[in-house]
Design goal:
Order of helices and strands: HEEHEEEEEEEH
Distance between the termini: 13 Å
Number of domains: 1
Strand content: 35-45%
Radius of gyration: 14 Å
Helix content: 10-25%
Number of helices: 3
Keywords: Signal
Strand order of the largest sheet: 7-3-4-5-6-9-8
Number of strands: 9
Shape: globular
Structural class: alpha+beta
Oligomer: single chain
């Protein structure tokens, strides 16, 4: 993986279950067009899902239809569906708003809730800057 390829394309991780309860993952660079679909059914439920249903908007690394994404949970979330904003990887530790989704809690798996103090979100431009330690955490999740 080179920094130039990170800068040119969104980061996508494609995971699939394999024998012995392990997951095989492939790192690829492509668009996130396929997760714009209204029906998302790949990810397993997260035990942490209930946490965001009662909290302010939070950022998290989450698996949505097999792809690891930076997402923000919105306050209009209910027990029946989660309103999320999906951010695509732009460059090193910069993510940009891609699109909004509404998914059922069973269709998204939260991998890590992110510390709000380690994030700078410029809402007007839709840009999120993550601290270096959060990028290291993302690399550990991917590996």
């Amino acid at each position: 993986m080179t920094h130039s390829s990170l800068a040119l394309s969104p980061l996508v991780l494609i995971c699939s279950p394999s024998p012995l309860s392990m997951t095989t993952c492939t790192l690829a660079y492509s668009t996130d067009e396929h997760i714009r679909q209204s029906s998302i059914s790949f990810a397993t439920p997260s035990i942490l899902t209930q946490v965001y249903l009662e909290t302010d908007p939070r950022f998290a690394f989450a698996r949505v239809k097999g792809d690891i994404c930076l997402v923000q949970f919105q306050s209009e979330t209910s027990r029946e569906s989660l309103a999320i904003l999906v951010f695509r990887h732009e460059f090193v530790s910069i993510f940009r708003y891609s699109h909004g989704l509404r998914v059922s809690p069973e269709d998204i798996r939260v991998l890590a809730l992110l510390d709000e103090d380690r994030i700078r979100y410029e809402e007007e431009s839709g840009t999120v800057f993550l601290a270096k330690d959060l990028m290291a955490q993302l690399r550990r999740i991917i590996d």
